[in-house]
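Re: Re: ligand-bound prediction request (bumping)

Still looking for help on this. To restate: I need the protein modeled with zinc ion bound, output as structure tokens. Inputs repeated here so nobody has to scroll up.
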Amino acid sequence: MFNFLFLLVIVFFIIVYYFVLPAKIGQKRKEISNNSFPKEWVLFLTENVYLYKKLPSQLKKQLHSYIQIFLAEKEFIGKDGIKITEEMKLIVASQACLLLIENNPNPVEPKRSNYFPYLKYIYIYPDRIAHKNKPYQEEYNILLGQSSVGYKSGKDGSILFSWADVLREANNPQYGDNVVLHEFTHQLDQEFGNATGTPRLSNLEKTLVWQKIFRTEYDNLCDAVSKGKETIIDSYGTQNPIEFFAVATEAFFLKSRLLAVYHPLLYEQLSQYYHLDPVIW
Ligand SMILES: [Zn+2]
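Reply:
Sorry for the wait, this slipped through. Here it is.
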């Protein structure tokens, strides 16, 4: 009898966790995405976020839904005296959600991310962040941003941002850097375990092709940087394959044409992964 009751309780929790909760979340998201996107938000984003401005209109419509859900689910926290504003949230959310939208939503392919499920908090600092990775570390690292996922301790992962850098990069594509795209790429990479530079793809063949192309491109970048050559992809990508994936994503969105011409295989991989073709935007 006791065993039967115990089994019943387990089955109940499985049903709630895997069916009832996702259905409720899905319903809530549907309601939120049906809300109209405020006109003043469109105006603000058009004036302040370069990638939003150049996005084709059918993708903008999709992005609006993602932004609204993102804003409803993520919590922004100001650090070192900074006060969080709606504009700050919009600048972060609009660029983060670029990684989620897609040209032709394809139900056969798994979604890349379910709204960054292990991310809860976004901490905004006024400027660059002095941070120790380990408490016993003597020197501070100076960061523009940092991403961590919270799957070990609940859905409480976080991203830190230097607001000065987020703001400067949002509307100045000529720098070729974008810390928002960078840190959210790490979120995608971290979603199914430790980041490796290879996100979860739909089958082994695709994973092996990705790894081969990314490895070659990573080695080529390391070689070019060691010889002091100019590169399209940020030299920070030589740190390791994880950083390479993040800076390659920045180049994919910000230097699309150059990447497509000089790194066609890498562009194709990223285009397949993001289901986007920014070279034609
Ligand atoms: Zn990074």
